Amino acid sequence: MSAVGTLLRVETRVWLRDPAGVFFALVFPALILVALGLLIPSFGEPIDDPALPWDSAPAVTAWVPTVLGLAVATISLTTMPVQFATFREKGVLRRLATTPMPPRRLIGVHLVINVVALVVAGAAAVVGAVTILGVPFAVDPATVLLCFVLATTAMFSLGLLVAAWAERATAASGLGMLLYFPSLLFSGVWVPLPVMPDWMQEVSKYTPVGAAAQGMLAGWFGDAFPLTQVLVMAAWTAVLFPLGVRLFRWT
C-alpha cells in the first residue's frame, strides 16, 4: 500500500504537468457552462413553465446535466485512453512487468486520478451554476448522483476499450474523438435536450452520455425516475468493461 501511495502521488504530479489536459478535464466544463449562462441572454431568461418546482429558474438550468455529461465524456474519451496507449507505446507497461510493481497498478492509479478529476470538474460546474448563474439545486440529487456514477462507469469502460484497441497514442486520440463528438451531439451540447426532435431523443436515450444527460435532467427537475436510462448505462458498463479488460494489451 505504501508503494501504491507513492505511485499515486508521483503520477498525480505528472498528470498535473499537462496544462492542456488539466484545463479540459477540470476547468472546461465549468467554464463553458458559466460562459454560456453569462454571455447568451436567452440562457439567463426564466423558464416559462408553471409546472417547475422552483420560481423563475434560468433557462441554463436545463443545460447543467448536459455539461456534466460533457465532463464525463471529455475525460473518458480524450484523456484516459491516450494515457494508457502512451504507456503501452513507450514500453512503460512492459518494463513494469519485470519489477515488483505490476503494470495493472499503474492503470489502477490513473483510473483513480481520472475519477477524482471528474468529480472535481462536476462539482465545479454545479457550484459555478448555482452560485454565479442562480441555477436552483436538483430536486432529486440522489437520482442525479446515480446517473452521474453510472455515466462514469459506462464511459470509462468505453474509454478502456478504446485504449485496449489502439496501438498508439495517436490512434487512441483519433478513435476517442470519433466517439466524443457524436456523444456530445446526443447529450444535448449542440441541440438542448428539451428541444431535441423526438427521434433524436429516442436515439439519445440508448447512448451512454445521452442516457446520463436525460437521467440527470429528470433528477434535476424532479420528473419520474429515469429507469430506462439507468438500465441502459448499467448495460453499457456490463458489456464494455469486461470486454475492455479482456482485450487490453500490456505490450
Automatic annotation (TrEMBL):
Keyword Transmembrane helix attached: yes
Residue ranges annotated for the ABC transmembrane type-2 domain, each copy included: 20-251
Domain of life: Bacteria
Alphabetical keyword list: Antibiotic resistance, Cell membrane, Membrane, Transmembrane, Transmembrane helix, Transport
Keyword Transmembrane applies: yes
Ranges that cross the membrane: 21-43, 63-85, 106-137, 143-166, 178-196, 227-248
Localisation: Cell membrane; Membrane
InterPro entries: ABC-2_transporter, ABC2_TM, ABC2_TM_bact-type, ABC_2_transport
Chief location category: membrane
Family: Belongs to the ABC-2 integral membrane protein family.
Protein name from the UniProt record: Transport permease protein
Annotated organism of origin: Myceligenerans crystallogenes
